[in-house]
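Figure S7 source data.
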Amino acid sequence: MTAAARNTAPPGPAAEAPAPPLGLLAELTHRCPLQCPYCSNPIALERRSAELDTATWQRVLSEAAALGVLQLHLSGGEPTARPDLPEILRHAAAEGLYSNLITAGVGVTPGRLEELAAAGLDHVQLSFQGALPDTTDRVSGLPGAHGRKRAFAAEVRRLGLPLTLNAVIHRANIEEIPALLELALELGAGRVEIAHAQYYGWALRNRAALMPRREQVLEAARRVEEARVRLKGRLVIDAVVPDYFARRPKACMNGWGRQSLNVTPSGRVLPCHAAETIPGLEFWNVRDRGLAEIWYRSPAFQAFRGTAWMPEPCRSCERREIDWGGCRCQALAIAGDAAATDPACEKSPLHSRLLELAESESRAEQDYRYRGYAAAGPPGAPR
Ligand code: SF4
Ligand code: FES
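Tokens for the predicted iron/sulfur cluster complex:
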């Protein structure tokens, strides 16, 4: 079947047609030099031998552009571990996709970054595990990581690429948020993403080690609001508050199957990065089907799209098209049912249990269980 034929899949007559997606997250590989305890990748990582090849990724990007995708997020693991990244980027640029490289920035030489920029890379998003060297090195499990990230950021700016810093926030670094904002300014970033750890997959195993205390969360929120006013026009601050201490859930993924899709290293297409934690969902693969057919027709995307799947109290709630019922993966992790009301919502019968759990775990003492990626060696090493 040709790419064009694979990509023509009008929605069925009975279904209400969803809008096309805006963004595609391409998880090029699960290989990674860091070992973060809050890793959002699945418990079972995909091996290099299972990864899509260059031509398949290029075909997927063509299908994405034809479908209406505007933004391509190249992620992993560590996407720079793929030797063919320049070819993938060149293809994305030719298809008119805006490309964002989401990287740990620890294994990328200046020459390699120049090659990526020449191939059409539009934007770099660099992770920091803390504002202080000790924090970054300890949380990432990689001594010297902080210094390498700083050097990488300098190269990004030297090449004139726009830079975003992102940090996953938890008990060990939540008090470094003001310093993270200063670091972003110092490194020439135009934007910072501060997202509290989400507790599913590997992070669920470390929840008691990661959960911040309520007073830390409140103080962090106050500091972020103050900084937003003070730094307006200099630094854009995107902050995602921690669900466990909230009254209402976040609109996870801006709604299931509404704006974006994830393609795993081996080609399964997911509505969110943690969707594979939900048992019983059927994920279609780009090796077998076109991206448009998957977006419009695959069972996994239809499962929680829109509002028809919602139970009460969501079904009759005035916020059902604001937060889209919150997070399905969190509902599964806490309620044991992906179709339940997100326990982060105070209308959920499990909300008080969630708060108690957060309070008690925020005071627990537990060492990190690091991910085992480091055995994979530096980016690009065979695995
Ligand atoms: Fe959102 Fe459902 Fe709570 Fe309403 S009841 S606020 S839709 S999670
Ligand atoms: Fe899967 Fe929120 S992470 S729906």
